[in-house]
Amino acid sequence: MKPRVVALLCAVSCMAFITGCWDREELSDRVFDLAAAADLQQDGTILTSAQFFIPSRANTTGGTSGEKPFFIESGGGHSYFESIQMMRQKLSRIVTRGHRRNFYIGEDLAKKGVYDMMDAFTRDPGNRIRMDIWVVKGNTGLDVLQVPYPLEKIPSVASVKIHRAVGGSIGTSYLGFLLASNEEGSCPTLPAVDIVQGASPQRTIRFYGRALFNHDYKLVGYLNFIEASYRLWMLNGLKYLDLAERFPDQGGGIVGVHVTQFGSKLTSSISGTNKVKMEIELTGGGHVGENETKLDLSKQEHLQIVQDRFNAKTSEHVLEMIKKVQKQYGTDVLGFSTVLNRQHPMRGNK
């Protein structure tokens, strides 16, 4: 056999071992999951819904052309995993969840418990760790996906931007839930939204506050917006907050303060009878944004009156929030257990 023929046969044989893109997936074969939701149905099954992006409508102006740049698909099953499989049977493309920023849990499912769902979440590498998970107060997650929002082409983006606009952190609730679940003595929380009637007949999404869970991963109650803000202040997680207090002895007007600087220090002590005492020191700074009273805030003594009133009222509101968390809900979502274990590692478990 001629050397040239032998070389040709060897080259052809080697082609079988050359790596190539045999399992490629084109963009036209993928569908992007932008947001999803899980709800408990009346028959006890799980309904999983997702909001998928339609690339061909990306340049449409949502709400005016009549063509939304997304569609919603759902699937039901006896478990979270099975419901996802039922939804996939209705999709012609492979689901990509790398762009998912929000996941909504209906209130009924949250009350029943989210342990199994969170377990499935952690086993799925497709879920982003920087995802936000929300509890929908008084409604289902599917309801939130269906509510239009005039400022955003993709309505599910609204809850993230609203949370950031009111001083909260975004992309942290999923990770925070996992960390709190593994912290001894601590209870996990999630941000909460609800659906309210806007100025127009159209419904809209509102950031409500914080949803509290017990050690069994079951929803036990909520903190409203201002209560949740005080909690974040204690945990050094607040960026800014608007406060307003009425001054009955100064004409009955209101003074509004925009707080932009926050500090928090928690100090624990244990008595001889193993009674725990927690001292909370909150500091803050900002500027006056409104003054409807008779006080002349250019005078130091009048400014001190305002500062003393806000200090007293803030202490009162924080104490009420702590009592609500501990006595009404029986949870620790304020980091007390963590502080106790760090400051008294030898006695924290006694």
Provide structural commentary.
The chain is an alpha/beta fold and 350 residues long. It has 2 domains: 27-224, no CATH class; 240-350, Nutrient germinant receptor protein C, domain 3 (GMP Synthetase, Chain A, domain 3). It is 31% helix and 31% strand. Strands 1, 2, 3, 4, 5, 6, 7, 8 and 9 form a 9-stranded mixed sheet that branches. Strand 7 (189-197) and strand 8 (203-213) form a beta hairpin. 26% of the residues are buried. The mean pLDDT is 87.
Helix and strand pattern:
HEEEHEEHHEHHHEEEHEEEHH
- The oligomeric status of these chains comes to single chain
Largest sheet: 9 strands, mixed
Number of domains: 2
**Overall average pLDDT:** 87
In terms of per-residue confidence, which ranges show pLDDT below 50 for 5 or more consecutive residues? none
Radius of gyration, whole Å: 27 Å
Descriptive key words:
single chain; 350 residues; alpha/beta; GMP Synthetase, Chain A, domain 3; 2 domains; three-stranded antiparallel beta sheet
Question: Could you provide a short overview of the structure?
Answer:
The chain is α/β, with parallel strands linked by helices and 350 residues long.
Break the fold down into its secondary structure elements and pairings.
Elements: H1 3-14, E1 30-40, E2 46-53, E3 70-77, H2 80-88, E4 94-96, E5 102-106, H3 107-112, H4 115-123, E6 132-136, H5 141-146, H6 157-165, H7 173-181, E7 189-197, E8 203-213, E9 219-224, H8 225-234, E10 241-247, E11 253-270, E12 276-291, H9 300-328, H10 336-343
Parallel strand pairs: 1-4, 1-5, 5-6, 6-7
Antiparallel strand pairs: 1-2, 2-3, 7-8, 8-9, 10-11, 11-12
